[in-house]
Design goal:
2 copies of one chain form a homodimer. By secondary structure, chain A is mostly beta strands. Chain A has one domain: Phosphoribosyl-AMP cyclohydrolase (Ubiquitin-like (UB roll)), CATH 3.10.20. The first copy, chain A, is built from 2 helices and 7 strands; from the N terminus they run H-E-E-H-E-E-E-E-E. In chain A, the strands form 2 sheets. Chain A has a 4-stranded mixed β-sheet with strand order 2-1-6-5. In chain A, strand 3 and strand 4 form a beta hairpin. Chain A starts with 11 loop residues before the first helix and ends with a strand. The mean pLDDT of chain A is 94. At the A-B interface, strand 1, strand 2, strand 5, strand 6 and strand 7 of A face strand 1, strand 2, strand 5, strand 6 and strand 7 of B. Strand 5 of chain A pairs antiparallel with strand 7 of chain B. Chains A, B: It is found in: Cytoplasm. Chains A, B: This is Phosphoribosyl-AMP cyclohydrolase. Chains A, B: It is an enzyme of class 3 (hydrolase). Chains A, B: GO terms for molecular function: phosphoribosyl-AMP cyclohydrolase activity.
Chain lengths: 123, 123
């Protein structure tokens, strides 16, 4: 299936390495610089990745609103970008950021704080 | 769209909180216990999550092979599970593991080691 790729100024050498969903997206994992906390998971198309790489502000594609979403644009909980890494098969990016305030819309620091399915401390 | 949910022994209380892709999957991020390294991204259906929670070995659904995949079953690079956390909207799990050897099939420690798109040390 051909991925739906929206027009973008993304470096063609990077674009050629992406393996997108049918909706033209790659998975984006935001991780806190220094502590390594996994903050949230979201999605990027080519243009969101381009904006993330060139503006220093993590920018995603909102699947529900079908629009670009600069993290923190309304909440102030911005993500300043330190590093962006593409995975071995080109379908996920790791975005290392400095997170201002809460990453999660619920007010939690990360989107993974509230629902622990299993813990085995010291195992 | 209704997700294609394969039969599974997953706790119904957990299954009810999952928001799956049309293929019945949630995104799974494996993170090294202690160091916080993000090792890899893969996918789980209900049964893969059930096996991960109950066997202590990270188990994924291979989209390409359409079969369950116990990480390290052939390579020996197993992932012993410490924690599993579900994100706020139920479409991603964070699996905190002890990774034996390389997480990436290329032999790199993580799937994000080889392709750095942006780095701004000290920014």
């Amino acid at each position: 299936m051909t991925a739906r790729v929206r027009e973008s100024a993304l470096d063609p050498a990077i674009a050629a390495r992406l393996k997108r969903t049918p909706d033209g997206l790659v998975c984006a994992i935001a991780q806190q610089h220094g502590t390594g906390e996994v903050l949230m998971v979201a999605w990027m198309d080519d243009e969101a990745l381009h904006r993330t790489l060139t503006t220093g502000r993590a920018t995603y594609w909102s699947r529900s609103r079908e629009e670009y979403w600069v993290k923190g644009a309304t909440s102030g909980h911005v993500q300043q970008v330190h590093e962006v890494r593409l995975d071995c098969d080109g379908d996920a990016v790791l975005v290392v950021v400095d997170q201002t305030g809460a990453a999660c819309h619920t007010g939690e620091r990360t989107c993974f704080d509230a629902d622990v399915l299993l813990t085995s401390n010291g195992a």
